[in-house]
């Protein structure tokens, strides 16, 4: 009961966003350690083992690389080069969204939105269009690809750790099409829906002035090397967390002149929250609460794998509209595993875990507060005098979000059940 109360308080505060997430996670973990260690309900070894060190290593390293890469000029150069070859405003906006989606498949979403926002605002100004459609579409595109690769988003890294997946396992796993390929198809459906519903009718010509952009290609080289190393880590004999740390250290060397800025911009709040929430979930698992929750949710499916998958996918969509996706993922992946085991296990285990990630990743686009990138985009709009109302946001987000999740759900059902 004590563990359950601390767990509920932790999630309640995390959802409220009234207290910094780092304070919530670390204080909850510290309280549980203080209460459980003397009773031997949880040993020091179990506390350390509950922390996914590979997740932290990859998250820290590639987040540092994301900061250096965003300052390298390469993303801006790529975007402007593509825009110079577009026919009209609708195609230009689709190109911006596609570039955003590609970059967000490997880099931190908010960082990519901040890279693309100035370019999008410039195009909107040139075409005399409202920037609302531009920035919201870019934010949505960044969230469409949170499960395209192992390093796209913290929940994807957590899934890889939980399921024992390598970088390439995201595309072909256990002789089946993997989550990454399914996510690519879903993202393409989402982008196509944005184009058909909103961009197709935008026919104004886009003419951008020439601009000399200073580019540094070394961060790009480190990025390619890091992704390659993750893809080949089983052959290299180096853990993914170690690769992440090496990438982070190389990024610090490349950005040495801006080291104070890199330290400031790194998302320490989420980083320490992840550490704390790993320990909290470890304690919840040790006392059997996760097992009970898995049985309860599994029971909702009435021993029907198809119905159970639907529950996990769409429950995740609904809850991700207001719950941070990191704690939700850490909580639900063991629950998905437990529910699948109750129904016979096998490929259903991965179907439920994948469905949870799809729901909380793409589903985060359903509301303005469902993903951090959306909040940042809204903030940039409000600074320029454009208030983002829920109904205006839903006009843009609803169709691509629902259709993308539905496509991923159907593919999971056909391929993994």
TrEMBL record:
GO terms for cellular component: plasma membrane. Its main location: membrane. Belongs to the CitM (TC 2.A.11) transporter family. It is found in: Cell membrane. It is a multi-pass membrane protein. Keywords: Cell membrane, Membrane, Transmembrane, Transmembrane helix, Transport. One of its GO terms (molecular function) is arsenite transmembrane transporter activity. The keyword Cell membrane applies. This is Citrate transporter-like domain-containing protein. InterPro entries: Arsenical_pump_ArsB, Cit_transptr-like_dom, Diverse_Ion_Transporter. It comes from the Archaea. The chain crosses the membrane at residues 24-41, 53-70, 90-120, 132-152, 172-196, 217-236, 242-259, 271-290, 302-323, 335-356, 362-381, 393-416. Residues 13-353 form the Citrate transporter-like domain. The lineage of its organism: Archaea, Methanobacteriati, Candidatus Hadarchaeota, Candidatus Hadarchaeia, Candidatus Hadarchaeales.
């Amino acid at each position: 009961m004590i563990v359950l109360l601390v767990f509920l308080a932790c999630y309640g505060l995390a959802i409220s966003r009234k207290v910094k997430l780092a304070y919530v996670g670390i204080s909850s973990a510290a309280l549980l350690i203080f209460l459980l260690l003397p009773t031997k309900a949880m040993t020091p070894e179990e506390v350390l083992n509950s922390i996914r060190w590979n997740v932290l290593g990859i998250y820290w390293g590639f987040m540092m690389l994301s900061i250096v890469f965003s300052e390298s000029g390469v993303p801006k150069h790529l975007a402007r080069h593509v825009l110079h070859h577009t026919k009209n405003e609708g195609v230009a906006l689709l190109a911006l969204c596609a570039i955003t989606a590609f970059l967000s498949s490997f880099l931190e979403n908010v960082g990519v939105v901040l890279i693309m926002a100035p370019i999008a605002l410039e195009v909107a100004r040139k075409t005399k269009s409202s920037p609302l459609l531009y920035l919201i579409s870019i934010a949505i595109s960044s969230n469409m690809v949170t499960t395209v690769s192992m390093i796209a988003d913290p929940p994807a890294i957590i899934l890889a750790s939980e399921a024992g997946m390598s970088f390439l396992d995201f595309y072909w796993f256990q002789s089946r099409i993997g989550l990454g390929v399914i996510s690519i198809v879903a993202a393409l459906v989402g982008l196509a829906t944005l184009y058909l519903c909103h961009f197709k009718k935008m026919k104004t010509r886009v003419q951008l002035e020439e601009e000399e952009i200073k580019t540094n290609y070394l961060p790009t080289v480190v990025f390619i090397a890091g992704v390659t190393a993750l893809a080949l880590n089983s052959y290299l004999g180096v853990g993914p967390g170690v690769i992440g740390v090496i990438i982070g250290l190389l990024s610090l060397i490349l950005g040495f002149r801006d080291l104070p800025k890199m330290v400031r911009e790194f998302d320490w709040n989420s980083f320490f929250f992840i550490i704390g929430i790993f320990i909290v979930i470890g304690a919840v698992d040790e006392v059997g609460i996760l097992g009970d929750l898995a049985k309860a949710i599994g029971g909702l499916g009435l021993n029907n794998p198809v119905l159970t998958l639907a529950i996990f996918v769409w429950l995740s969509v609904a809850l991700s509209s207001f719950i941070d996706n990191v704690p939700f993922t850490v909580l639900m992946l063991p629950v998905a595993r437990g529910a699948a085991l109750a129904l016979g296990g096998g490929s259903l285990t991965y179907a439920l875990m994948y469905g949870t990630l799809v729901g909380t990743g793409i589903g985060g686009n359903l509301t303005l507060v469902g993903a951090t990138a959306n909040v940042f985009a809204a903030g940039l709009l409000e600074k320029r005098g454009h208030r983002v109302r829920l109904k205006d946001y839903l006009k843009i987000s609803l169709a691509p979000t629902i259709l993308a999740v539905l496509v991923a759900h159907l593919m999971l059902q056909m391929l993994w059940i």
